[in-house]
Amino acid sequence: MLKLGLKCSYFPEQLYDRLQYRPDIIELHLNDDDLFGDKRKKLENTISMLLREDIEVYLHHPSKYNGRYLNIIHEQKEDYLFYHLSTRILADICLSHSIKCVIHPHYIQTDTSSINKENNDKIVNEIKHILSYGKGVFLWENSIYGLFTAQNPNWFEEIVRPLKLPLAYDISHAFISFRGNKRLLLEQIEKLDSYIQYFHVVDSEGQKHDGLQLGAGRIDWKPILPFLMSRPYIYEITLKDITDAVEMYESHLYLVQLLKHN
User: Fold this and answer.
1) Neighbouring residues of 210: CB distance < 8 A, sequence distance ≥ 6
2) Which string of DSSP letters, residue by residue, matches 144-174?
3) Is pLDDT of 110 > 80?
4) CB-facing half-sphere around the CA of 157: CA atoms within 13 A
5) How far is Cα 89 from Cα 119, in angstroms, rounded to an integer?
6) Which terminal residue of the chain, N or C, has fewer Cβ atoms less than 10 Å from its own Cβ?
7) Rounded Cα distance, 242 and 231, in Å
8) Stretch 74-93: mean pLDDT
């Protein structure tokens, strides 16, 4: 069975649009101020409402703080402190609702010159701190360029495997990291199969972050279908209108048709 997973914020104009499609899974993308005060209450009320409707809920850690993209290895102390504060709060929310949260060690590219054992060890030490806040809560997502990506030849051996990290695997991010190489993409999915707990499903031309509807890019979805059928995922398509998930739903129909003719 292919599940329908959709992404949105907890804002009503996005959320109610997604609910009309009767999704199995919703991932709630968060901003840096969604974890405090009245906004946190609204977030937790939304989580409770979705769970009552038998919808599986995932959260997505804020990608920015004060407009700056976050990185687990921060030179700026304020950003570093927010990364840790936000993950502590998210661990509490997830544990109280028995849900999970997607998180990036870094949200923008780290320079290729930073890919070395010293920085791999730094990421491992920082991730260990986050893991101490809540066991099994966080799903670690691969970016496109840099340390926590397919560009790093020792990504699995030095970071993922030693920590036994559960992964949120973004298929398009990896495809772009591999510069559109379909064989390398499939080989890595097979290699990481036992670590991947969740997918971001989105097509790409394989050259830059383009967030394409399924079928509009170059990813070969047929050999990936069996992996998608065995665990949760959401469609993370760049929408023309953020309050209208039609491109996500059409991507789901694309996979349904592919499965019928497989």
Assistant:
1) 172, 204, 217, 238
2) SSSTTSTTSTTIIIIIIHHHT--EEEEHHHH
3) no
4) 5
5) 26
6) N
7) 26
8) 93
